[in-house]
Amino acid sequence: MSEWRRNALRIAMPWLAIAVLLLLWEAACIVFDLPEILLPRPSKVFAVFFARFDILLLFCWQTLWTSLIGFLIAIAGGLLLGLAIGASPFVYSGLYPLLIAFNAVPKVALVPILMIWVGVGALPAVVTAFVISFFPIVVNVATGLATIEPEMRDVLRSLGASRTEILTKVGIPRAMPYLFASLKVAITLAFIGSVISETVGGNRGIGFLMLSAGARNDAPTTFAGLFAIAIMGVLMYALCALVEKRMTRWAFRGEIVS
User: Fold this and answer.
1) Over the stretch 1-54, which tens digit does the pLDDT of each residue have?
2) How do residues 227-241 score in pLDDT, each as one tens digit?
3) CB 119 within 8 A of CB 165
4) Which of 210, 220, 225, 236 has the greatest count of CB atoms below 10 A from its CB?
5) CB 187 within 8 A of CB 133
6) What global pTM score does this model have?
7) What is the three-class DSSP state of 13?
8) What residues contact residue 163 under an 8 Å CB cut-off, 6+ apart?
């Protein structure tokens, strides 16, 4: 197979997989005569998606900006705390168990508390998106800093490098691939956090729209909301992957990011 065909097939594979999945879904609905309220056909979902595109777009915008604000706050906080944990064994031993314990708490349980503290609206969604996407960034940045070999630290110290210089000139570049790997996970988690908040106690957003549609037994609109969340998640993931490709090309080999 030529290189051109190989690249074309690699680009087409995700679309082919989606098409096969949708065809199997459509066929299963027809063969088993599934009621629409249980599992609507993809053709019906797409029809509703385009017929109510303006409404979906309005609610998606609410979910998008709350997710992005929570995600950006998580990047800032995660970077600072990750650098502190990775650079200092005392901060690591003091805070890491607390982070693990906090991450073990189901985030859906926090939403009612957030509603008591800050009320109903966009703010609980922003905070939930931040809380759920914060942990992977901290862990990956700290792990990236921990990959500096002790021998390299000793060599750099013998050459006169200070602790700050080792951190900024070796540690942070080492942590960049780990940071971008965590961002691709965290952005999808941020969407999950926003949608959880909207379904539990929101008054806007795609989660609230899906909850309202579910209460009316409007399964096609509910599934159209799921499609919209999936599309936003894939687009944001692709954006993070594009930034990763430009910022950390040096860290990869082969054709994955070529």
Assistant:
1) 677 888 888 888 989 999 999 999 999 999 999 998 889 999 999 999 999 999
2) 999 999 999 999 988
3) no
4) 225
5) yes
6) 0.85
7) helix
8) 87
